[in-house]
């Protein structure tokens, strides 16, 4: 009986001495964080309205705008700058090109590739004409014709229309025949084919610059003058029959014509086709 009582007392005491451990995660938000969350979603207009409302509700708050006004005055371009020392400013020994350069290019954005000078072909043509021909009237007409050339160096306008425009601007009448003579002189300049009005004329001007006494060159000139339409239509048999040549000779003529330029002004004769500047990988 005594043993039963002792065992019951031991079990009760062990039950009363038991301990339990629990882990809980709990987060708390500060009042300042709640206020910031209420401000983060506002746009600029809503934020200004909220600040104005807080200033009206709380008389102890004051708006500080001195820093903002100073920042705005710093970037105000309309404000006139007063120089205390005029001699220091007026007689500055710094060259003008240094200040002008800073207005166009940033020192950090300078091009690393060498800039090559590519003169306009019209300026070169005008200089060539003045070296070969000295008439003042022809020089004026030549300048006007050269300026009327397209970017390929060809004249795609009628001489009658150019004569009317020149007469209207200069207030003196010019006949198209006079322009024709000046155009023939322009076509003697470099590069070959300059001032041509059609592709056929451009090819003929290039062939006439070569040795026209050669039989193959004579045949090629005859082919372009008399059978250019047949050549475009690929009537090869008609061309061989008319020129009295065989197929091998026709191939030689076509290879000669194929080496000519279809336009007077190309990347090859302007010097802008290939850039041989060596650019290092690291500096």
Give the tally of β-strands: 0
Largest sheet: none
Spatial extent as radius of gyration: 45 Å
What separation lies between the terminal Cα atoms? 103 Å
Count of helices?
Answer: 16
Percent helix among the residues?
A: 55-70%
Strand percentage lies at under 5%
Low-confidence stretches: 271-276
Mean pLDDT: 76
General form:
elongated
Order of helices and strands: HHHHHHHHHHHHHHHH
Structural class: mainly alpha
How does this model look, in words?
By secondary structure, this protein is mainly alpha-helical. Among the domains are: 121-186, no CATH class; 199-258. The protein has 16 helices and no strands. The longest helix is centred in the first third of the chain and has 15 residues, at 2-16. The chain is elongated and about 120 Å long.
């Amino acid at each position: 009986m005594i043993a039963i009582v002792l065992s019951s007392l031991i079990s009760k005491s062990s039950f009363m001495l038991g301990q339990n451990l629990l882990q809980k995660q709990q987060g708390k938000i500060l009042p300042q964080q709640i206020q910031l969350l209420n401000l983060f979603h506002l746009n600029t207009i809503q934020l200004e309205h909220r600040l104005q409302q807080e200033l009206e509700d709380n008389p102890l708050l004051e708006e500080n705008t001195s820093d903002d006004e100073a920042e705005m005055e710093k970037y105000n371009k309309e404000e006139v700058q007063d120089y205390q020392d005029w001699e220091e400013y007026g007689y500055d020994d710094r060259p003008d090109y240094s200040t002008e350069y800073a207005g166009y290019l940033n020192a950090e954005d300078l091009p690393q590739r060498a800039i090559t000078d590519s003169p306009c072909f019209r300026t070169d043509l005008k200089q060539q004409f003045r070296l070969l021909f000295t008439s003042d009237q022809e020089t004026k007409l030549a300048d006007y014709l050269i300026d009327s050339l397209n970017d390929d160096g060809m004249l795609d306008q009628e001489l009658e229309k150019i004569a009317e425009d020149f007469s209207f601007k200069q207030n003196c009448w010019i006949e198209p025949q006079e322009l024709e003579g000046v155009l023939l002189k322009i076509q003697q300049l470099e590069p070959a084919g300059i001032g041509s009005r059609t592709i056929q004329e451009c090819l003929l001007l290039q062939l006439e610059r070569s040795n026209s006494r050669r039989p193959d060159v004579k045949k090629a000139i005859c082919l372009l003058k008399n059978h250019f339409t047949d050549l475009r239509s690929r009537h090869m048999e008609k061309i061989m029959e008319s020129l009295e040549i065989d197929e091998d000779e026709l191939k030689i003529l076509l290879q000669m014509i194929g080496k000519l330029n279809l336009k007077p002004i190309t990347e090859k004769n302007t010097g802008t086709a290939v850039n041989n500047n060596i650019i290092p990988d690291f500096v």
